[in-house]
Amino acid sequence: DGYEKIKQYLKLSGTLVSFSPAIEQVKKTTLALRENEFYEINTYDLMKRKYQVKPNATHPEVRMIGHTGYLTFGRKVRDVKNPYRERKPKQEEYMNLDGMPFRGEDL
């Protein structure tokens, strides 16, 4: 898929930004980013609001066009194994300082 190619061009900690005009595309993009090991995935909606700028009277125009789209961000990170999540050795794999295995009752 296209995300593997994109990851080749992104530097470590590089950010991918995607514009989507509809929420259905945001869902697809977010799921694809998760499947391709992107992290810190966030989506923001965009609002378009024009301002009238006048001396002593700056304010948004009365008429506002609401939603215009979504920006989704995802960060490429290096795959790092968490040493705290690795399996615990079996009892017979424990060794004492002399290199002798512990007996079950020694633990």
From TrEMBL:
- Pfam entry (one): GCD14
Keyword Disulfide bond found: no
Note the Gene3D superfamilies from the entry: Vaccinia Virus protein VP39
| The keyword Transferase is annotated on this UniProt entry | yes
**This protein's UniProt keywords:** Methyltransferase, S-adenosyl-L-methionine, Transferase, tRNA processing
Its cellular-component GO annotations read: tRNA (m1A) methyltransferase complex
Select a single GO molecular function from the record's annotations and give it.
tRNA (adenine(58)-N1)-methyltransferase activity
Output the SUPFAM superfamilies linked to this UniProt entry.
Answer: S-adenosyl-L-methionine-dependent methyltransferases
Q: Residue ranges of the tRNA (adenine(58)-N(1))-methyltransferase catalytic subunit TRM61 C-terminal domain? A: 7-56
Tell me one GO biological process term: tRNA methylation
> Which positions carry the signal peptide feature in this UniProt record?
none
| PROSITE patterns, sorted | SAM_TRM61
InterPro entries per record: SAM-dependent_MTases_sf (IPR029063), TRM61_C (IPR049470), tRNA_MeTrfase_Gcd14 (IPR014816)
What is the official name of this protein in its record?
tRNA (adenine(58)-N(1))-methyltransferase catalytic subunit TRM61 C-terminal domain-containing protein
Lineage of the organism:
unclassified sequences, metagenomes, ecological metagenomes
